[in-house]
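Margin note: ligand = zinc ion.
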Amino acid sequence: MSDSLRFSVTEIREAGGLCASLEVEPALIFPEPVPNAALAGPVAAELEFSVGGNRILLQLRISGSWKTNCSRCLAEHRVDFAASAEETYPLDQDSVDVGEEVRQAALLEVPQRSLCRADCKGLCPQCGKDLNAEPCGCVVKPPSPFAALKKLKGS
Ligand SMILES: [Zn+2]
Ligand SMILES: [Zn+2]
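Resulting structure:
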């Protein structure tokens, strides 16, 4: 993890707290690719350290956007996210590294299912054409609700 995500405990302690704004490059927190998603750019991170008892409390806010593929037509699109998290660290160490917290918070925001637009028509199940561009002309028979009913009855 890079030094840019590392903060001196002495500095935080002497000041009684610390605020920082960072632009975290994707490669810093995700050296390995994330399955089914990639960061569209740096993650903006707002850090607020405070000292309480023998701990340092970090309040973290992040925002950015994931590039992912549409669940219906596979088109790449961006999904913006904003999230917050809290973490505490012991005071008896030289520095705190917030990289893992930024990473975890961003990972939780990876879209599991996302559409390029609300009314995405998806791909034709027969010819695979993107139906958002134009209809493909395949005749897709809708499954008859009675067919399933017949099966159930065993007739
Ligand atoms: Zn789509
Ligand atoms: Zn088709």
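The first strand starts at residue 6 and ends at 8.
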